[in-house]
Amino acid sequence: MTPSTLYVCVTCRGATPAAAEGPRAGVRLLEAIERQLGEADDGLAVTPVECLSNCQRGCSAAVAAAGKWTYVIGDLDPDRHAGDIVDFARLHRAHELGLPVWRERPAHIRKSTIARVPPMKFEEQR
Amino acid sequence: MTPSTLYVCVTCRGATPAAAEGPRAGVRLLEAIERQLGEADDGLAVTPVECLSNCQRGCSAAVAAAGKWTYVIGDLDPDRHAGDIVDFARLHRAHELGLPVWRERPAHIRKSTIARVPPMKFEEQR
pLDDT tens track of chain A, all 126 residues? Predict the structure, then answer.
């Protein structure tokens, strides 16, 4: 199975104002995702990124893999949605083209999909 | 120079209701982009796609190339913004990492960037 990468924006401030001190919402989302994954080696890599340019609907993460569709997911609350984005990344990894079945995607992911982009060498659809 | 691909969503209905007959706004955007490019072989490929999942802010296009950042751009009016997205795609192609200088990007592209995703094998930023 091709491994999938979860890119997590660590500069996101999130939907609600954070305390002046303490980590940014994006950093907390990253930490929540890493806790969720634990020590399991299930073909998911997590990579922090400075800005996925989805600032209006942060926190943000993207799921990508060689030869597969890339998904950008927004509106992620570090306290509530780490499990959803990890579940979606596992479905993405399990699907040959990175296109999880719609009804199997977590509800929050369905509502908060910001964009998707086809894999390289994608054949045109007319 | 690595070629860049412009993925254009041809299922977008656009911001304004179209006539019941006639092509969808996304198809008109595709045609406008192809007219803009003309016969020039400048390292840009145009690929129609069914849905980039940016339906709330269509019309939509994405710019991608192997080893570079991918950008998703929205709010594209087929009658007004084909030149802007082509200019942005040329800047993307000209930049080693696909990161055009902010002030050189067309104003509409700066306002309407929906998301960006790092290239494969991107090193983490902590």
Answer: 788 999 999 999 877 665 567 899 999 999 999 999 987 768 899 999 999 999 999 999 999 999 999 999 999 999 999 999 999 999 999 999 999 999 999 999 999 999 999 998 777 665
- The 3 state secondary structure assigned to chain B is CCCEEEEEECCCCCCCCCCCCCCCHHHHHHHHHHHHHCCCCCCEEEEEECCCCCHHHCCCEEEECCCCCEEEECCCCCCCCHHHHHHHHHHHHHCCCCCCCHHHCCHHHHHCEEEEECCCCCCCCC
Q: Which residues 6+ apart lie within 8 Å of B118 measured at CB?
A: A7, A47, A49, B69
ipTM over 0.90: yes
Q: Contacts of residue A126 in chain B, CB cutoff 8 Å?
A: 10, 48
| pTM, entire model | 0.94
Q: How far is B103 from chain A (nearest CA, A)?
A: 16
CB contact under 8 A, B125 and A50: yes
Decide if A33 touches B, using CB distance below 8 A.
no
When scoring B116, B121, B123 by the number of chain A Cβ atoms within 10 A, the one with the most, hence best to mutate, is B116
- Number of alpha carbons in the 13 Å side-chain half-sphere of residue B85: 36
- Taking CB atoms and an 8 Å limit, are A62 and B115 in contact across chains? yes
